[in-house]
């Protein structure tokens, strides 16, 4: 169960730089490519000629060309041409709304006529020269909601990431969670603690002492369909914590875009945006490498958890206060999923009514 | 859906030189071995003692011996012996008609009493000293008919094999297709073209200039159950094309025997027979290596196409004029499949009738 | 179909030395660990918090701690604690009776209240200083009964283990099989034979001539649920065979504990116990290496046999006199499986009756 009338991150520009990219999203096999004028398009990954995946093809003069027999496609899913054939009567394939923004390609897997680029989640840090971003992509065999749970309850850092960002004070500090409209925010503040290795390095990277008591914060924000953006940081103790001035803290935004592939697998786009030393590319690379290693530690756990839940479908699991972030996120998702189903039903009914009226008028 | 009362290529002699070979053909697991007097036999790959695969056994004194407990088999599927046991009452296993001819082992997976070796496709080139042959085997996860389609529409060469045998003139020349009895022939002739790399090399290999305008031809012949033999070649332009004298052309026969393993996998025996420099073994090896590389380019495409078609079972695909070869081949196959089903039904009915008559006579 | 109210070997102490071990036994995923006071426990491998496998966790102060969010478990399946949470109301998970004895961890996958450690198969050799033991573990994709068949009919040695322990005299000597209560014994005695390579080495290892005629014996003992202990040995001919004095023979016990993982896969604990040179650790290592190689030869055959039987479910296989050991073992198993099913049914009925009586008394 995933929302379809919404924008998901589909891929990054480097993935379509050389050739088309085949990727399954929300159960649909799609091909992404950069065509005429550099515009990105998304089509069904199914050539109307013989069913070959278009993603095995190539781009020629801005057109996607099937790699089997050379049928050429337009970005709207109609056939553009084929040597020796008139393609006007060829069946079309589905085209998905796709937008390139903030350094990502976004796709709308639902009803195309509802797709509004203005609804793409605004990312301040992606447009400002004061910020730098680095990230990566993991393919994980788990329900996308297990990854939302993971990110909305950072007590797991103490166990899964013990050597980098985990520390006992995380689980000793109760989180506070609230839902505001479609957004869920779960916050945790720790005071007078020792910065764990990752953050000690970040303080040094920012030219600050790393061996003094610090305040630390984690503010996780879930927004539909499955984005989790987390404000994280440490400040020298007594300087105001989260509100401390820039010269007393190291802070950043953990970026998580979770795109369902199937009911039990995801494309997980992870990264970190920071507003200190934004032009230090070496620092960006170092942080990305460290974050990639840390975030990779979750993979085995999530896949093993998924296997256990799949094998025990009727089994209840606990919802503790630390799980509130994930629980409230699911409440938002369930509400939106119900709304999407209702909307779809009413559209079907309306079109049936229109057809009946038309038939009556004609009869 | 595959024909069963017909001859398929099962394996090549080198595959059974050292030990028995287990291979699934048309859904049936078989063991092939060379027994008494060097004669090749095919049996069910199932030891009547404890169900172990006989293909894990060995040959002793011309008998196939199970590698688990030593039951010895006769080529007709009866048990030949077992130390310390009287095997007369042992159940038999199925024996499949098998014939070694033309450098291949042929098997008949259907009703044994209908098997007639005279119906094995005659291969002129396999018996003549004027011809040389080299080939190989690929295991591919696709319906055998997708491979027939592939070989009966060579426009794919322009895309899949762009760097070796592909060229724009192929798709620019409309093919002509006709069905003659059970055979389907699709032909394409190109005139005054530049020989593509593979053929330029063949011209040089035959001592001919490779930089002059050429005529090129491709005559694909499908015969049941799934053989595709393709006459291909180039001649210096104006020398008569396909009918040019031997000293002005380089030509050969592309050999394709497609043996279904399951509904969605095949054993693909490919090769090339040529009637120039037949004793040049180095040339045979060079051609085989080149052809193996080229034909290997189809594998990913066919398997990806199969996956797309499996996931979209109801979906129609196009049948263009270039697809006529495959389409007409399927018409032949469907006709023969229906005939085989009818024949089977009438045999069942006849045997039921005989049983009733016998019962009445006895009653 | 496997017995559940019985003791199986689950693992060896080295497998839980560093961290918890996740292992599926009789279809149930379990975690084994050494906790407080070094006592071994077995729990469901399912954290009651979020369903993560506990086997990905660690041991802290004798408690099993989930590696995801730190829930701590007691050996009885109740929750021991979690930072910031009161765990009294947390649901428990299943605890399995587990006992460490004879160098193995034994587990009882059935009704815990029926588990009696006294019913663990007594292993004389595991407690006596006159004996040494070495062994290993294989994971094999076959029904556990196929492995019982394998071990209760050693004629396969002639074929599968031809270069080490096989010899023609095995299959030439008819075995004798009998059932005594729940035990099945199949014996084979060979006289005046040449010791095969493995036994020639054992004679030399025991300081005896290896090039003189020998008597050889194999006495296979099946006991439920799936233990096969085999007395094997050779003696210089004419010294009394199986009853020969220690200085004229080399003998040992082949140890086979077969633990079902699923209906078609097993954990196979194999080894050899010997009562000569028990303190020669180099000899133990040499024998283990040799036995491991020999026993590894069965794997492919058993998995291929399983595949053949799975594909041909209705097919009958033969039960010859050499198969009596396996056949009689299955008779014992079937009787015990029926008894276990009847016992379970009567317990269900009794508890339903008690509930009715209670309701009537309350009503």
UniProtKB/TrEMBL annotation, chains A, B, C:
GO molecular function: 2 iron, 2 sulfur cluster binding; metal ion binding; methyltransferase activity; monooxygenase activity
UniProt xrefs under SUPFAM superfamilies: Bet v1-like (SSF55961), ISP domain (SSF50022)
Pfam families xref list: Rieske, VanA_C
The entry's keywords: 2Fe-2S, Iron, Iron-sulfur, Metal-binding, Methyltransferase, Monooxygenase, Oxidoreductase, Transferase
GO terms under biological process: methylation
Domain of life of the organism encoding this protein: Bacteria
Keyword hit for Iron-sulfur: yes
Domain Rieske: 7-107
Name of the molecule in the record: Vanillate O-demethylase monooxygenase subunit
